[in-house]
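Repro:
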Amino acid sequence: MGLRSGLVVWAVLAAVAATGAAPPIQDPDEPVDVAEPIEDEIISIPAPEVRPPHIRAMDLAESPVPGTGRLRIAFDGNRRWCTAQDDRVVKQNPPQGRKPARGATTIVTFGYQMILAAVKRGSADEAILLFESPLIRTATWRPASKAGLTPNVATPSPQVSDSGATVPPARRIAPGDLVPYWSEINRCATVAERMDFDLAPGVYDLYLAIDLLTRSGVYIHRATTFLLDVAVEEGRHTQVEGRVDMRGGGLRDVKLLAASPPGAAGPAGAAAPEGTGGTATRDP
């Protein structure tokens, strides 16, 4: 035994003598206590709340910019506008002899937006774009497998029309085919109670439209209304009464009704006489 090993043994014996007891010896048959592992804490993060879209213009200061007048458009009604999966006024049938693919939908409306423009008297060739809302998308292209469409595995067979002609069978949708996916949360939008704009003094014709974006990428008018002879004076306020209202039976009112004289803004929400223009649309 070397000198260092002897010193270690001597130190252990001295510790036992000082305590009066030998260190415990673990029984090999005795179970060993093992601390349970600490489970990872699961943190639940709430999903962001998804709300229907809201159409609103930029907020302006109380007074108009020097050298301009304030035009305010105040909307009454429930200020809701809703669309449909196929909101075209005139529906187009597929070409003769062709049928849509199995499982295909009739989604044609891919979005909509509101546009408000003005034309100043004496400058008919220069339209002023007052407001253009962001495009509210109601449909997107997704693979059929992610859009919840299950391909039809049955073997299609030709069909015979009433005239006796053989009609080719409809093509089955493959999982990778792109199909329209409808976003119901964006089907209806709420328009702000009022919109303010600063314009140079003059007399204006106002134009409001709600346009649809179709699946082919083309915009078409769905609701239009106009109001003529709206006067704007420097440093004064002109209020235009409008209406956006979604009622039962699919009736949608989108109108510009009448304008008050500059300086007399009028109470918000007050009934106004019918003016030039206006339109009401009904879902087909």
